[in-house]
Please model this.
Amino acid sequence: MTCGLCCKDDPSYRYAVSSGFFRDCAWAAKKNSRASKVCTRKKVRSNCPITCDSCQDKFSCVNNNEFFINLGNGKRTCAWIGRKNIRRLNLCSQPMVRKQCPTTCGLCCENDPAFTFTSLTGEKRNCAWIARRVSRKERYCPLERISSSCPEENTCNSCQSTNA
Model:
């Protein structure tokens, strides 16, 4: 929840109210006045993020195509890092690389919803367009920039594993 990967109220969490009774998130959610009062408490906000409207923004789970790491022998992309396991093992240990290249580093596997490219016919296309036809996968997924931006199993199936 802290990273924004998921957000739900903890059904087992209980807290004391002024009457001495113990209540749960669902009890507070029934009335805005209750939620407003108990959600001022840090522990309640943390355990009842839906009720208290305290969910974190979703962690960006796609490679940053603008990111380059300078290794002394030129600037390298997330896709370059991902091409060899030894690079992934060495470079994904760096916090900045993990943050900028979460798909390459095996932290997650999502198509970049903002990614577009120009098809061979000159039209703007996205990952969903590729996913609809095997022939498109065969044509476009070998391209490094596309496989890095469209890694989901139903598209280019280029997700990296966290295992070596």
